[in-house]
């Protein structure tokens, strides 16, 4: 069965940040620091999904999806990151899983979507190697409760974005500005992934995947310097996270570091544990030029000549086909089946006076990206699922509530949900698919 779904993440939708024993996460801390998010927005309430989840499950049932990708908040399950388990946190996801299954919607939980327990940040966050093992313990705790009903698990969401935005550039939690010094945060996430795969398998968790955010990298010109810079960027964004998992080795990281002393014997074997699927989040390609200063080995030259989303991201559906066929060409038989675990766009999405949201641009975006995915499948790429980001308008990290990605409009003052035109379009699209 091809999985057609929607995706969300805990901190972006749940709210109830201090309820039922949930501990603080690095995103609570970060969003409450002045100047970190647009207009000081936080996820304290967000979509209030923690209370309104029955309505959200009903929205998915009405949409006709057969899968839902959500994330589990580590600090709800283990308020201090490790040690004492908060039963009420697990109870929430247990109820959600049962409600989804009752509607014929397969739950696809992601164990880490950037909301690290604050207590673990105090010991260094993902810069601390021991956090990898603690992540696997957390995975085991969740699986012990849910593995009997959850057939497919995702360990991490986008370790690249978490490393780059959270640890290198400081624009996401935990707000560190380590630049190239952030590489251990990549390795320890990957090691945590590998250890979590072992823990999930031991708990009888069924299928296990990892989600990477990947981008086709275009050199700004055919000049040798631009081509070399594009290669360096491809290594950082894509290959740093795909090669160790699929091939058991790191790409050449000499443009970023002189030493991989944080990699210990046996780590790569752990990281390369066989996967049942690779999750790919696709938003846009990246155009790269030679660096103009001595800092990084590349410059972002910007993709021009395409329409853009409200975020300013270029809309390039064929980039998805290019990405998927490129992965197949690079990894060959080592590439597991692929799930598109996120694809979508932000749009202004104003609620009109008659209570509708006419988001034609999103309909067009989704239609063309699904066509591009199918083109890649026709060219031999084994894709098993597609999840729209997102079910709901939600807390878009540093952008707060200013970027709307949902098929369903959310009025953040009241929590009121209004399905957009794209929701009706996707519903009709799903009705046309073979069962
Ligand atoms: C993803 N980029 O993040 C995340 O998984 C979601 O939580 C998020 O809401 C969604 O995409 C939309 O942003 C990304 O700059 C953040 O390349 C940044 C980038 C890509 C994905």
TrEMBL record:
<dbReference type="Pfam" id="PF00232">
    <property type="entry name" value="Glyco_hydro_1"/>
</dbReference>
<feature type="binding site">
    <location>
        <position position="12"/>
    </location>
    <ligand>
        <name>substrate</name>
    </ligand>
</feature>
<dbReference type="InterPro" id="IPR033132">
    <property type="entry name" value="GH_1_N_CS"/>
</dbReference>
<keyword id="KW-0624">Polysaccharide degradation</keyword>
<dbReference type="GO" id="GO:0008422">
    <property type="term" value="F:beta-glucosidase activity"/>
</dbReference>
<feature type="binding site">
    <location>
        <position position="389"/>
    </location>
    <ligand>
        <name>substrate</name>
    </ligand>
</feature>
<comment type="similarity">
    <text>Belongs to the glycosyl hydrolase 1 family.</text>
</comment>
<feature type="binding site">
    <location>
        <position position="283"/>
    </location>
    <ligand>
        <name>substrate</name>
    </ligand>
</feature>
<feature type="active site" description="Proton donor">
    <location>
        <position position="158"/>
    </location>
</feature>
<keyword id="KW-0136">Cellulose degradation</keyword>
<dbReference type="GO" id="GO:0030245">
    <property type="term" value="P:cellulose catabolic process"/>
</dbReference>
<feature type="active site" description="Nucleophile">
    <location>
        <position position="342"/>
    </location>
</feature>
<feature type="binding site">
    <location>
        <position position="113"/>
    </location>
    <ligand>
        <name>substrate</name>
    </ligand>
</feature>
<protein>
    <recommendedName>
        <fullName>Beta-glucosidase</fullName>
        <ecNumber>3.2.1.21</ecNumber>
    </recommendedName>
</protein>
<keyword id="KW-0378">Hydrolase</keyword>
<keyword id="KW-0326">Glycosidase</keyword>
<dbReference type="InterPro" id="IPR017736">
    <property type="entry name" value="Glyco_hydro_1_beta-glucosidase"/>
</dbReference>
<dbReference type="GO" id="GO:0005829">
    <property type="term" value="C:cytosol"/>
</dbReference>
<feature type="binding site">
    <location>
        <begin position="396"/>
        <end position="397"/>
    </location>
    <ligand>
        <name>substrate</name>
    </ligand>
</feature>
<feature type="binding site">
    <location>
        <position position="157"/>
    </location>
    <ligand>
        <name>substrate</name>
    </ligand>
</feature>
<keyword id="KW-0119">Carbohydrate metabolism</keyword>
<dbReference type="InterPro" id="IPR017853">
    <property type="entry name" value="GH"/>
</dbReference>
<dbReference type="InterPro" id="IPR001360">
    <property type="entry name" value="Glyco_hydro_1"/>
</dbReference>
